Amino acid sequence: MKKKTKHSFSSVVSVNPYKDSYFSGASSFLSQESSPKYSKDQYAISYLNTKSFITSQISISKNISDEDLYDAINNKVYDELALDQAVSYQVQFIETFNSLDEDDRNFHVFIVDPLELQETFANVVSKIKYIDTIIPSPLLLKSLYEKEILESSGVNAFIYFQENDASITIYSEQEFLYTKSINFSFLQMHERFCELYGERVLYEDFMDFLSNHNLKDTLSDYKEYFIKLYKEIFANISDILTYVKRAYELKTIEHIYIDSQIQTITKLDEMSEVELGVESSSYDFNYGFESDGVYIDQLHSLMHIYTTLPKDQKYNCNFTPYHRPPEFMQRQSGKLFMLSAASLVIAFVYPFTYWTLTYAQNLQYKLLETEYTELHNIKITREAIIKNKEADKTKVATLLQQEKKDYAEKKSTLVKIHDVKVNYPMKAKLLSMFTKDLNKFTIKVDSITYDEDKDKKTFTLNLLSKKDKKITQMVEYLTKAYEGRYDFSLRRIELKDDPNQYFSELKVVIL
């Protein structure tokens, strides 16, 4: 367990800030905390979902000293990733040693917006006051190797689904290599399922099916669409694995560990093995913890394992801004107390009046300095918020224009579809009606053409008859029967090669 100087802890509380769930552990027993409270003897640890931070790889010259390393990485991150200079991002990094480079040192960099931290952990801090460690969730997997729960030294992929995030993480030779958030959290899976199913399904019903129904033997109407959903998920994962193997020159992914935040009857590892062709298994690790029968989220178990690691076996990547206060004598209040005590001692040496003026001035200076620091921090924070809101406004305006464009395209498509649905049945009905009339006069139709311009719609019927009189009788009948609705015109009646076969072209104009 990572401890601060002169702090000792009797228990550990792990926090899922996205679900507001807490598990307290003492020794090897874990219990769920419904109403957690602050305790000075309690070590608090939490994590950041993959979509809550930016990650990248950068190289820094070996000529940069360790004292200047943070500033060099910070400056390079802002330049290479084009970060907003107005935002004071929190930057943490871990060094990698999986490549031989004579000139540069290589680092995995993790970047977090401070506003993201404030919004994510506001509710947590209101309950337990301090959080000793906030670590990117992919780095928790390191503890599986350090505790020899996993002994593989090859390339392993870890896939985990949660309500508001889903991620894939790659470890190679027991070291972190790559992580990515994928767009298939439970919430996103629900939205996609509704699109495939064709109607809105309650989120609770969706989660109930996901957790309590086995796709192998269920007869539910949802089965077909869940299968389609899972195929999309594994197709996306396959693309990511292909990219990782190409980008990092990996020969193969040796094993996939896949699981979700909730228990599922459907075996995700069996589906993974079939769809991806890689040996797979669930997160069914033997963490060595006991509980009172409550299902423990895998990330809670990983956090408790992580706290038991020695400092040199952990990734040093802590984003917490919620540190415990230092010892009393190191706090501002303690320093003020020491200053007051010293002033009292000096009062016995210097004249009372001189002591009073000096103390008053020092106290006023400290108060003004503290007030200035608070106001300056407020100013910087509000300026950053304003710039973020302006950027959000620009993004929303762009999205609005795109939505308007999409609306116009969809409207045009619907108009065309409506025209087809209305006109095509009309044409078929018209031809059926004329066919009956032609049959009355035993006239055959050799071919039919249709022409349409802005003001006129015309059918052209090429007629065949053994008697020319039949054709003229038929035209006379049609003209009277459909007067005012159609305009009939007959150019000429000709004999074909067959002396008993007359040919004529009848034009029907729809009025």
How would you characterize this protein structure?
This protein folds into 4 domains: 1-149 and 286-324, Nucleotidyltransferase, domain 5 (2-Layer Sandwich), CATH 3.30.420; 151-284, ATPase, nucleotide binding domain (Nucleotidyltransferase, domain 5, 2-Layer Sandwich); 328-403; 441-510. With 511 residues, it is an alpha+beta fold. It has helices at 66-80, 114-128, 142-146, 186-197, 203-212, 223-247, 268-276, 298-307, 332-347, 352-440, 468-481, and strands at 11-16, 21-26, 29-33, 42-48, 54-61, 90-96, 104-112, 133-136, 155-161, 166-172, 175-181, 255-260, 280-281, 444-452, 457-465, 486-495, 502-510. A 5-stranded mixed beta sheet has the order 3-2-1-4-8, with helices on one face. A 5-stranded mixed beta sheet has the order 11-10-9-12-13, covered by helices on one side. Strands 14-15-17-16 form a 4-stranded antiparallel beta sheet, covered by helices on one side. It is elongated, with a radius of gyration of 38 Å. Residues 1-6 have low confidence and may be disordered. A hairpin with a 2-residue loop joins strand 10 and strand 11 (175-181). Helix 4 crosses helix 6 (223-247) and helix 9 (332-347) packs antiparallel against helix 10. The relative contact order is 0.09. It is built from 11 helices and 17 strands.
Descriptive labels:
Nucleotidyltransferase, domain 5; single chain; 11 helices; 4 domains; five-stranded mixed sheet; 43% helix; elongated; 511 residues; disordered N terminus; alpha+beta
